[in-house]
Amino acid sequence: MHFIGVERYWNPYLETLPPKQLRDFQFKKFKRIVEWGYKNSKLYRRLYDQAGFNPDKLQGWEDISRVPILQKEDYRTAQAKEPYPYGDSLCVPLEKVTEFHQTSGTTGQPVYQPDTWEDWEWWNESWAYVLWAMGFRNTDRVFIPFGYNVYMGSWAGHYACEKIGCEVVPGGILNTEERLLKIKELKTTALMATPTYVLSMAEVCRNKLNIDPKDLKIQKILCAGELGASVPAIKNRMQELWGARVYDHVNATEVGGWGYECSFQPGGVHVNEALFLVELVDINTGEPVEELHMPGKIVITAFDRYAQPCIRFDSKDIGMWGKPCECGRTFRILKGGVLGRVDHITKIKGVLFNPASVGEIVRAIPQLADEYELIATKKGATDVIILKVELVPGADAGQEDVRKMLSRQLRLKTNLSFQIEFLKYGSLPRPEIKINRFKDLRDNVDYYERE
Ligand SMILES: [Zn+2]
Q1: CATH number at residue 382
Q2: Which of 20, 96, 277, 398 is the most exposed, fewest CB within 10 Å of its CB?
């Protein structure tokens, strides 16, 4: 369903601002946060002084790329200093901090994230754009199936739901079957989860509870926390299983809720250009990438977050600009959402390989279950890539046909030959939170960037 008129947008003015005005607005906001960081944070002052940069040099849009890029490691170095635990990355007196969160630590020592109450309201505002664009309204009862713990995502989703008037059911303490029964009992209309968990919930629903997930009558599902909801094969699989519309959302603890798919499902995510500056830069040269359909590394600035600012942060995610969306928002589209991570891209047999491309292939084949595992290893001096997948019950008889089909698709999309291993249905873990399905057992392998 598409809402019409101003009802379609959370902020009708900013979301439809003509591009020229939008860029002027962004530049003013960008300059202000750069000045704030330089004045109040020793981390940014150190970074900029070392690079010979001063905020006075920011005269126009073209100067943005002169601002040094911040790495996650810079936060870690700053947080190793006094005072504990935020070190000199904190820009406000400690007593102003009301929220503590941290990153998941999948790429090393977690980064701590302090926020003031104003920052926290800003976080929820960024999520309000997201939920509103997906059609969440005050008539929705939203189920969040995770324990929130110290991680940002679900907390922000929870409060933003309340902000726009939804009723929220936090299902953290329950197991998957109990969560599904709660959804049924309360007739919840919407769900938020990772694509992996959306798929595995559907599996448990059918196999353990003997209920068709469609009968739960969930209307919309917000997916975040990992890639997949912008990939047609994965999105379709989720939509068909649940009989619901599935939308992609991207956020990061250090950044904010910066991208969202709207109800028009344009095959990617809008960048929230009212609250963030999202740049694409060439992976090798760092030069800006403005052309459509050219992959680049995503560099992000949050305009209005003050306790621990995020200015030209190297997300290590890969994206590419797509055509404008028909919903009327002037916010640009990243086609296909986030396409992968720079630090996961590696060479196998001399061919550049993005592990994220495999999920799409596996999930487009109905005889295969949703989970898979990828292992890169060596046989003598030669690279070998192994794909472990499960056949769904009843598909064993046609195993060799499936192997051929899978092999062909893999070859076509990645230019590589895989060693395919079929596993017993249900033997791979079904994680609740994001996991890395790619294990590289080779020594001394080149990655674009690895922390
Ligand atoms: Zn749109």
Answers
A1: 3.30.300.30
A2: 20
